[in-house]
Amino acid sequence: MKIKFLIAMLLSFTFAILFLDLSQVHTLIKIPLRALSIIIMILPIWVVIRKDLNIQTILFKQKLNKKKFIKLFFVMLILISFIFLVRFITYRQEFFSFSKSLHYDNYLWIYLSFGYLSQVFLQDILLILLYNGMITFVSGEKRSIFIITLLFGFAHFSLSIFAAVITFLIGVIFLLVYKKFENIFALNIIHYPLGIISIAFGWT
């Protein structure tokens, strides 16, 4: 099973690299293409782990209550502050400049509201399946977090070293959030606003 999972993970990250750069594709086509590419990445992992792990259980291990929502809100504020700090350090002269596509693409609001939300949900499913598969078949929790986020960072290396490093760091934070709250919606709540800000800055 360990070998099967590693092969499935290799296939998944190969698909990730192949489908990574869709910057030249129009927004209306980009939405279904990205969703389709993430589903293709999920499939090999799902096929391998579905008999040994209850997918519904690992996505919704805990329920989110009011206290947890408050904690998530503060985590989100800290992460958003971190993103703006990175923006200020790396693009000081263009700190308040947003992506041109945000201003000139008439369909961007569709992508931000519906398309990106579905993309976030699918990406978080992939991350959670990889994490649970790793700790079940391959390694412990800390090592699994490091390996998965390192691979995610490497998959973004073709965009830039900056993109690879940020993806690695954000991936570590996302998995720590999932480990704490054990609910995919907790991860979605953190992931979505950070992604919207990244799009506004023209990072993705």
Secondary structure layout:
Layout: H1 2-18, H2 27-49, H3 55-59, H4 66-90, H5 100-104, H6 108-137, H7 141-155, H8 161-181, H9 184-200
Helix pairs in contact: 1-2, 2-6, 4-9, 6-7, 6-9, 7-8, 8-9
Give a written overview of the molecule.
- With 204 residues, the chain is mainly alpha-helical.
- It has one domain.
- Helices cover 77% and strands 0% of the residues.
- The chain is built from nine helices and no strands.
- Helix 6 crosses helix 9.
- The longest helix has 30 residues, at 108-137.
- The N and C termini lie far apart (35 Å).
- 27% of the residues are buried.
- The mean pLDDT is 80.
Share in β-strands: under 5%
Mean pLDDT: 80
| H/E element order | HHHHHHHHH
How would a crystallographer describe the biggest sheet?
none
Total helical segments: 9
Tell me, what's the shape? globular
The proportion of residues forming helix, as a percent range, comes to over 70%
Number of β-strand runs: 0
Q: Structural class, judged by helices and strands?
A: mainly alpha
How far the N terminus sits from the C terminus, by CA atoms, comes to: 35 Å
Total domain count: 1
Notable traits:
204 residues, mainly alpha, 9 helices, 0% strand
In short:
This protein is mainly α.
